[in-house]
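pasting for the record
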Amino acid sequence: MIEQLSSRQKEILEVLSENWNVSVAEISKNLKVSSVTIRGDLDVLAENGFIVRSRGGATPAINQRILQRQSQSVQEKNRIAKAAAELIQNGDHIMISAGTTTALIGKYLLGKQNIKIVTNSIMFLQYARINPHLDITLVGGEYRPEAEALVGPIALRELEQFHVKIALLGTDGFSIENGLTANLVEMAEVVKKMAAKAEQNVFLADSSKFDRAGFAHIQPITKTSAIITDSNLMQDSKDILEEKGLSITLV
């Protein structure tokens, strides 16, 4: 994931996301390091799936919006993902929706056994390569690069056939007034379906998303089992949410 990259490699990604035609020489000049160093960084980025090398340069393999979201609240997102992973026991059947926080859950499942996961997240798949004890079902559907997700009627139809213990779900905003929301209508529909197919639904969101509303409604706040967020959430906000019957975990 992006938090494993050096500060210079992150800068290179930012440069490439703004100008796909920039050359190695130009990057070298802008960052004040040698072309050899830049080529080495590009090799690392390519090996980790962030870019596709081309003659004399490279292009991003991940949508610019995803890169921006991955670089925000990195420590908070990791703590939230770790706390979510701790809810999962050996042999559990779970659903995980697409998102930059939910995708991190996979790296905290190492050591757990026989976990069946249904997801629409492309980013989550990298953990299938390093953890043989994850049995991952990727639903079909239409690919949305801005969310690194599969959505649409096919995804909804395939989700209908599953029933799981826990759904770990992302949200672009949560508030008392607007409930849980997403920026994409198609993502809201997938998250809504996953919540309906689980005995327990737990939403993951860093505190910056509190009192923020995305474009599409997922469900009222009172239909949510629990929310895991970071310790930057104000105490009075936590109290208000708990008054509505929610379980709020701060990490």
